[in-house]
Amino acid sequence: YNPHYQYGLPSVENPYVFNGDSVDRGKKGLEVFLLLLACFLAFPGAVHLNRGNHEDSVMNARYGFIREVQQKYRVSI
């Protein structure tokens, strides 16, 4: 199953809407977010990202997204 072949690429005539809660859904939340952001930038006006309750800072802290980002992008001083 590959939705790219079934639904085609996003376009103004074929918009994609992602309805929130994209992070905090497993160990790859950051990668999912970066993929959605890349699609949003690559297909302006065709990819729409709605914010869900898991895109809130309190939920990010409670369910581990902040910790995931900190572990994957450690800052050395």
Give a summary of the structure in a few sentences:
This protein has helices spanning 3-7, 29-42, 57-63, 65-72; strands at 16-19, 47-50. It is mainly alpha-helical.
User: What is the helix tally?
Assistant: 4
Low-confidence parts lasting 5 or more residues at pLDDT below 50? Answer: none
**Structural class estimated from helices and strands:** mainly alpha
Which descriptor suits the 3D outline?
A: elongated
Q: Into which percentage range does the β-strand content fall?
A: 5-15%
Arithmetic mean of pLDDT = 87
User: How are the strands of the largest sheet arranged?
Assistant: 1-2
Radius of gyration in whole Å, from Cα? Answer: 14 Å
The end-to-end distance, rounded to whole angstroms, is 45 Å
Say how many strands there are. Answer: 2
Describe this structure in words.
The protein has 77 residues and is mainly alpha-helical. The chain has four helices and two strands. It has a two-stranded parallel ribbon with strand order 1-2. Helix 2 links the parallel strand 1 and strand 2. The longest helix has 14 residues, at 29-42. The N and C termini lie far apart (45 Å). The mean pLDDT is 87.
Q: Which SSEs are present, and which pair or pack?
A:
Blueprint lengths: L2 H5 L8 E4 L9 H14 L4 E4 L6 H7 L1 H8 L5
